[in-house]
Design goal:
alpha/beta; 4-stranded parallel beta sheet; 3 domains; 10 helices; Dna Ligase, domain 1; 342 residues; Rossmann fold
């Protein structure tokens, strides 16, 4: 019997429905449940073939537990090693490299020095930064947000330099991004599961939270939806996320990826609506069962994005040569003098 576990915090509607849906499939060799964590011993396997992670971004203990589970054979969704390394500024850079439009963005050093650092720690940083060059590049209005994510916390809309410096002074040790505003005529929030199941939802981020999925826009064109669908898959395949949402703002007919590092996206029935909720429960359940059926006990069952796998392939294929060993010549120690004979 293979077990599928879901690791979650205070949310209830999605985890409960996910477990119920899998168990109602009537599969003889697979069942689902909420994960129970007790003693975590190094290199010891868990009871789970698959774990869906919904909470480790807020609980470092859980992230360590999931890495230990992964090295012992659990298929963890999403990959806890990549999730630990990823952040939104890198996401934007990767999007540019794979041809997905994104807003112009720069990264800023934290306004306050990190703890246990001093002026000498930043001897490589130009001070002051070329603020006029930065502002000319981004333009106004602009948005400032943490480079590592965190939902809508510490997000500022800025109309001029005075707004910027006032807000920047409030950000403490957060590393921030400054990003151009995309004035959009349409907006989509898209689930992507298993890097193949895509749900495109019209979305209005300017509405109150509980009304954001109630868009007054008419249906989008098939051509636009196809482009959004393709961009969503391009991003999730490059990043390696099997459970993610991608937000796309459409300006002059062009979809721009606004936010696409959401590996534990909102799936509560009260915010996404019943129809979207039913879709994500069904397709998350399918994905988890597929991963459980493919899981090999005691083996590496993690998945990685093409950004990582292409680098590995280049190295293994000989395109990237390992650095030659450095030969260090050592002088022979002088021979010890023979003892004098009397």
């Amino acid at each position: 019997m293979k077990k599928i576990g879901i690791l979650h915090g205070m949310e209830r509607s999605f985890p409960d429905a996910f477990v119920e849906r899998i168990n109602k499939m009537g599969l003889k060799d697979i069942k689902a449940e909420s994960v129970i964590v007790d003693m975590v011993q190094q290199a010891e396997p868990t009871d789970y073939a698959v774990i869906i992670d919904r909470i480790s971004q807020d609980v470092p203990f859980y992230r360590a537990y999931l890495k230990n589970a992964a090295i012992s054979g659990t298929a963890v969704i999403n990959n806890p090693f990549w999730w630990s390394a990823d952040e939104k500024f890198f996401n934007n850079a990767l999007a540019v490299k794979i041809g997905v439009p994104v807003p112009k963005t720069v990264i800023l050093p934290s306004h306050e020095r990190p703890t246990d650092t001093g002026e000498a720690s930043f001897s490589n940083l130009k001070f002051p930064l070329s603020w006029e060059k930065i502002f000319d590049h981004i333009g106004w209005p602009a948005y400032m947000k943490p480079h590592a994510g965190g939902g809508w916390k510490s997000v500022y809309k800025l109309n001029n330099m005075d707004d910027f410096f006032k807000a920047y002074a409030e950000t403490g040790q957060l590393v921030m991004m400054l990003q151009e505003e995309i004035i959009f005529e349409d907006y989509f929030r898209c689930y992507c599961l298993g890097r193949k199941y895509v749900r495109i939802m019209q979305y209005e981020p300017r509405n109150p939270h509980h009304l954001r999925y109630q868009s007054t826009k008419g249906p989008a064109s098939e051509k636009l939806l196809k482009k959004v669908h393709d961009y969503v898959l391009d991003l999730c395949n490059a990043l390696g996320y099997d459970f993610n949402t991608v937000e796309m703002a459409v300006r002059n007919g062009v979809p721009y990826a606004i936010d696409f590092c959401n590996p534990a996206p909102d799936a509560d029935v009260n915010s996404v609506g019943q129809e979207n909720f039913d879709w994500v429960v069904e397709h998350a359940s399918r994905m988890a069962v597929e991963r459980a059926q493919a899981q090999r006990p005691g083996k590496d069952n993690l998945t990685w994005g093409t950004f990582v796998t292409s680098s590995v392939a280049a190295f293994e294929g000989g395109l990237i040569k390992p650095a030659p060993a450095i030969k260090v010549e050592t002088k022979k120690a002088p021979a010890k003098p023979k003892a004098f004979k009397k």
